[in-house]
């Protein structure tokens, strides 16, 4: 695993971490090389699929023209032996070619190239993603950066990078969630929601944001708001099984008035997952938070 979390650091303490930074920058440079190969493979693959689709379109065109001509005057068409011949040919040998083209898998060669790149070039892991996200969160905390400006790519009022999409913010929230950091999960999920509402081409599903928001809100001690968010999610997706289970749980907890603030007794947390699974054991065993969902 390489340390891409140092990416952000050079902006602020270039001198202190210089040698570490160079290692990280070299790593990132290598990642860009890998990415170039991926893009190249993807573009080649798209071209191959387009070629295949173009060919199929041409077949469809020819079939349509012939067919329309036949249906204009069916009787005289079928009376002509040449037409009879071409009709039968179209539906036998020609059609076999169409079928074989449809079933041709053009993806294999390109996937082979992609797999080669993943195995032989520098390729980031999920751990790297977690590390890079954690570095952003650390930066945010250290400099008390406001989530919205950071999402705009601004550090202390200076624009350093392009804006984050709703999906980028969502992923920062999800990574925080996986680290059991519900405070930052909330900040980034709210920012994701905010950005999503302005996005023309939506980059993430609102239901997923609400789900993380609700559970983190609950973990942060606000069970009433967690219930509101869950209800909102159920308005959008009435059949959402986990949300239904969580709603019942939150309502029961509110009624009992026995809800404990975070940090009290984690083992009391029981959120039904798919109706039956109990979260508690995951918390106790400190397994991946992702398992909860
Ligand atoms: C696979 O990668 C090699 C080397 O970059 C390239 O020459 C070849 O055209 C690629 N093949 C495909 C199917 O993209
Ligand atoms: C949204 O997607 C459409 C179709 O791909 C594209 O033409 C348009 O530019 C996109 N809009 C934005 C704001 O990215």
Notable traits:
disordered N terminus, single chain, elongated, 4 strands, about 290 residues, 2 domains, binds 2-acetamido-2-deoxy-beta-D-glucopyranose, Serine Threonine Protein Phosphatase 5, Tetratricopeptide repeat, two-stranded antiparallel sheet, two-stranded antiparallel ribbon, mainly alpha, disordered C terminus
Provide structural commentary.
Helices cover 70% and strands 3% of the residues. The protein is built from 13 helices and 4 strands. A two-stranded antiparallel ribbon has the order 1-2. Strands 3-4 form a two-stranded antiparallel sheet. The chain is elongated, with a radius of gyration of 28 Å. Mean pLDDT is 82; it is low at 1-22 and 261-293. Residues 41, 44, 109-110, 113 line the site of one 2-acetamido-2-deoxy-beta-D-glucopyranose. It holds the Pfam family P4Ha_N.
Short structural description:
It contains 13 helices and 4 strands. It has 293 residues and is mostly helical.
Protein structure class: mainly alpha
Helix proportion: 55-70%
Could you tell me the number of beta strands? 4
Q: Which term fits the overall shape?
A: elongated
Measured between the Cα atoms of the first and last residue, the distance is 26 Å
Please give the order of strands in the largest beta sheet: 1-2
Question: What is the total number of structural domains?
Answer: 2
| Percent strand | under 5%
Q: Give the cofactors and ligands.
A: 2-acetamido-2-deoxy-beta-D-glucopyranose
Q: Write the H/E string, N to C.
A: HHHHHHHEEHHHHHEEH
Give the CATH level 1 class of the largest domain.
Answer: Mainly Alpha
CATH architecture type of the largest domain: Alpha Horseshoe
CATH topology of the largest domain: Serine Threonine Protein Phosphatase 5, Tetratricopeptide repeat
Q: What's the alpha carbon Rg, rounded to whole Å?
A: 28 Å
Low-confidence stretches: 1-22, 261-293
* Count of separate DSSP helical elements: 13
GO cellular component, one term: endoplasmic reticulum
GO molecular function, one term: procollagen-proline 4-dioxygenase activity
Protein name: Prolyl 4-hydroxylase subunit alpha-2
Domain Prolyl 4-hydroxylase N-terminal: 25-157
């Amino acid at each position: 695993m390489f340390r891409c979390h140092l990416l952000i650091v050079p902006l602020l303490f270039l001198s202190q971490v210089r040698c570490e930074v160079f290692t990280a920058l070299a790593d990132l440079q290598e990642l860009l090389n890998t990415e170039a190969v991926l893009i190249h493979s993807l573009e080649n693959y798209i071209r191959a699929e387009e070629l295949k689709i173009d060919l199929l379109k041409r077949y469809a065109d020819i079939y349509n023209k012939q067919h329309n001509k036949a249906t204009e005057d069916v009787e005289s068409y079928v009376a002509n032996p040449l037409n009879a011949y071409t009709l039968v040919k179209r539906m036998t040998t020609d059609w076999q070619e169409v079928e074989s083209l449809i079933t041709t898998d053009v993806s294999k060669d390109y996937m082979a190239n992609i797999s080669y790149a993943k195995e032989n070039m520098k390729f980031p892991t999920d751990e790297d993603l977690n590390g890079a996200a954690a570095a952003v969160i650390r930066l945010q905390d250290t400099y008390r950066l406001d989530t919205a400006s950071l999402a705009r790519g601004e550090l202390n009022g200076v624009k350093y990078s392009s804006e984050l999409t709703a999906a980028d913010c969502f992923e920062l929230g999800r990574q925080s969630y996986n680290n059991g950091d519900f405070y930052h999960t909330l900040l980034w999920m709210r920012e994701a929601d905010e950005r999503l509402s302005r996005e023309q081409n939506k980059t993430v599903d609102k239901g997923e944001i609400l789900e993380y928001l609700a559970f983190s809100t609950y973990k942060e001690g606000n069970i009433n708001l967690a219930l509101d968010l869950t209800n909102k999610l159920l308005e959008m997706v009435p059949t959402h099984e986990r949300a239904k289970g969580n709603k019942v749980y939150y309502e029961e907890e509110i009624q009992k008035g026995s809800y404990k603030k975070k940090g009290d007794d984690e083992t009391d947390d029981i959120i039904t997952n798919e109706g039956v699974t109990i979260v508690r054991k995951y918390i106790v065993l400190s397994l991946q938070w992702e398992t909860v969902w």
